[in-house]
Design goal:
Length: 322
């Protein structure tokens, strides 16, 4: 009966539309991850939620004619949310399965003095708008790039002082980690009751480092399924993908972020495999990869990657709830 109803709505097609009971709109924004933020939505454990997001400029730049100096910088890096997850208690881990990321038809990029890794060499701001057609972005010089949508900002509220959405840390936030895509599962800490999950700053694509300070900044929609994991030993933030596991860490200096990501993976391996610490770090040295997420935010972010082929031999099933 219901199917017949939908079929009549959609021209007799037998395909039912995807109906998600939970949505958060792109005008429900925060600028800091903060335990004092009022939730815009409460969802039960295992809920699927669709977040609509603005780009990192809160959609203020629609053309290359936009006046860079007139941008309202207090509206940079908004995140949509936060969502209160029922049953999420302090010390739990939030499992966020990223089902899908849809992005718009146009991305924005800027360069500006002091922005990014070599901003000192840039004399004046520039704005580029980048069309995206059939999943391919046309970049500077006509270069074609298949898009790989990812989430730049995603996190939970910290236990202590509020953290601006532009800063990454142990709560997640502006990690700008290009393995946080559809198909990935992200594990975040629950620092306050309900976790208070929020996200934004989608990139249609972004290279490791994000050296200009910009990805293909774009508005869009993210579908996630959120679950609460009790008694987890995972060092968060942590990402599970088909190709393997990633421990993510941020710190003021890139060296410290690199060491922390490595230490988090090594210590977790010693807790979950027969390996000693020296055996774990030796294995990581030979078969794992230390990778850079970004070098342009107030804290820098690295990830340590352990390939699935190695995880399988250590009985670390990449599909289980750690
Ligand atoms: Ca970002
Ligand atoms: Ca961004």
């Amino acid at each position: 009966m219901l199917l017949a109803f939908f079929s009549s709505l959609f021209g007799g097609s037998a395909v039912s539309p995807i109906v998600s009971p939970y949505r958060v709109s792109a005008d429900q924004l925060i600028y800091a991850f903060d335990q004092a933020n009022l939730p815009v939505l409460r969802v039960p454990n295992h809920a699927t939620v669709v977040f609509s997001t603005c780009d990192c400029f809160e959609n203020q730049i629609q053309s290359t004619e936009a006046a860079f100096t007139e941008l309202d910088w207090s509206r940079i890096n908004p995140a949509t949310g936060p969502v209160f997850v029922e049953g999420a208690a302090v010390g739990d881990v939030l499992k966020v399965v990223i089902n899908d990321i849809q992005v718009g038809a146009q991305a924005v990029m800027v360069t500006a003095p002091k922005l990014g890794a070599i901003g000192e060499q840039i004399q004046a701001p520039t704005i580029h708008t980048i069309p995206i057609i059939d999943g391919v972005a046309t970049l500077m010089g006509g270069v074609k790039l298949p898009i790989q949508p990812m989430i730049g900002v995603i996190g939970t509220a910290p236990a202590g002082a509020a953290i601006p959405c532009g800063t990454p840390d142990a709560h997640g936030g502006n990690m700008d980690c290009n393995v946080i895509t559809a198909g990935a599962t992200l594990y975040l800490p629950v620092n306050v009751e309900g976790a208070l999950l929020a996200m934004g700053d989608l990139h249609a694509a972004m290279g490791d480092g994000e050296v200009s300070g910009c990805g293909l900044e774009i508005a869009g929609e993210v579908s996630v399924t959120i679950s609460v994991i009790k008694n987890s030993t995972l060092p968060t933030p942590f990402v599970v993908r088909q190709e393997g596991l990633y421990a993510i860490a941020s710190s003021l200096k890139l060296d410290d972020a690199a060491n922390l990501a490595s230490a988090n993976m090594a210590n977790w391996l010693t807790q979950n495999t027969p390996l000693s610490l020296s055996e774990a770090i030796s294995l990581m040295s030979v078969a794992g990869d230390l990778q850079i997420c970004q070098v342009v935010d107030p804290l820098k972010t690295c990830r340590f990657f352990l390939p699935d082929a190695i995880c399988q031999q250590l009985n670390l099933n990449t599909l289980k709830d750690f």
